[in-house]
Amino acid sequence: MKDAIGVYWLFLNTDMNIFVNGTFDILHRGHLELLNYAKSLGDFLLVGIDTDERVKEKKGPTRPIYNQEERKFFLENLKAVDQVKFFSTDNELESMIESFKPDIMIVGSDWRGKPVIGSHYATKLMFFDRIGDYATTKTIQSIIDRG
After folding, report:
1. 91-107, pLDDT tens digit by residue?
2. Are 102 and 123 in contact, with CB atoms under 8 Å apart?
3. What would be the CATH architecture of the domain defined by 16-146?
């Protein structure tokens, strides 16, 4: 009986590690919903964010709006987020996921049916549906249009 109680105690006290990644340039409700949802699934949430150089490469020379240190600071000050790390290449992202060994990795539902970097190191891959029409690019365009 003592062994069964020990196994049950271990089961209850196993930390669930959760991983998400992205740019997180101008935080909006969609980001917060994703991060809060991710944290609700586990005990420790690691957020990987693109370096400034990677953002410029992927989104153009006018991005990011906030540099990587500012974006990291914003995320670290959200109660859902436990740690933030940078990556500048696909290989760095994959290495980060491999060393973290997440129980759950969450990506946007737009990645469904596509290869997800590092997902084979996660016990489970989950997809998060967009909340409303939130997007950083749309926010930036809205600000420009107000001129």
Report:
1. 999 999 999 999 999 99
2. yes
3. 3-Layer(aba) Sandwich (3.40)
